[in-house]
Design brief:
alpha+beta; binds coenzyme A; 192 residues; Aminopeptidase; globular
Length: 192
């Protein structure tokens, strides 16, 4: 899939160079500044996550994309892998896409996450039109919710007990592209 500045492709474990690039990006503490405790502790842990993306691609026909630059950007060359992003069914068991992104700091501030979010919304609606596109974000991550605010609307914000011990006490938001049932919203709040 092509956007104005990006080439978006599925996660494939057979692309060793791409996996190595993504491991480098995921290892960067700057990429986890909003939640340092969630930073993967080993390359193996990152590869396990990427294997989950690859499985989810096979199961759902769509998941987070590997994001490559089509042309040079700032100091980065054409073809550079700048991260992952897109929509995922993410194993929560809910019939809801979860929009997210994780980019190399060298690629921040150029509007790339916004470009990914717009492409993600279109791809999700084409792949499973009846499945809502949602997102979950920490309020202390303004770069992330600024992007979400361009393509989705806030369905809930607050502090609630959740399953995730890392984020349960932190102010969070749930975003959506359409009205959600009470049960779906409650479930999304619980998995933030
Ligand atoms: C979130 C992230 C993907 C944004 O990528 P990006 O390509 O820089 O995003 P964009 O340039 O499309 O837009 C970022 C928006 O947030 C704003 N922004 C960026 N950093 C910010 C900060 N530290 N504080 C406040 N606003 C910020 C930008 O001004 C822009 O808003 P605007 O277009 O209204 O001016 C990137 O910062 C990242 O990878 N962070 C680490 C991983 C992460 O937090 N992922 C999401 C949670 S899982």
């Amino acid at each position: 899939m092509l956007t104005a500045r990006l080439r978006l492709g599925p996660v494939s474990l057979s692309d060793a160079d791409a996996i190595a690039s993504l491991v480098r990006i995921y290892r960067d503490p700057a990429v986890w500044a909003h939640l340092p405790e969630a930073r993967p502790v080993s390359d193996q842990a990152i590869e396990t996550r990427l294997a989950g993306n690859a499985r989810s691609w096979a199961a759902n026909g769509l998941d987070w994309w590997i994001v490559r630059l089509r042309g040079p950007l700032g100091g980065l060359p054409a073809g550079e892998i700048v991260g992952l992003g897109g929509v995922s069914m993410d194993g929560s068991g809910l019939d809801a896409w979860n929009l997210g992104y994780r980019l190399s700091p060298a690629a921040w501030w150029h509007g790339l996450a916004t470009e990914i979010a717009q492409a993600s919304l279109a791809a999700a609606r084409e792949t499973r039109p009846h499945t809502p596109v949602t997102a979950r974000v920490l309020e202390r991550n303004p770069a992330s919710w600024r992007v979400l605010g361009k393509v989705l609307t806030v369905a809930w914000q607050g502090v609630a007990d959740g399953d995730d011990r890392l984020t349960a006490d932190l102010p969070r938001r749930v975003y959506t592209d359409r009205p959600l049932s009470h049960d779906m919203l409650a479930a999304l709040i619980a998995v933030v």
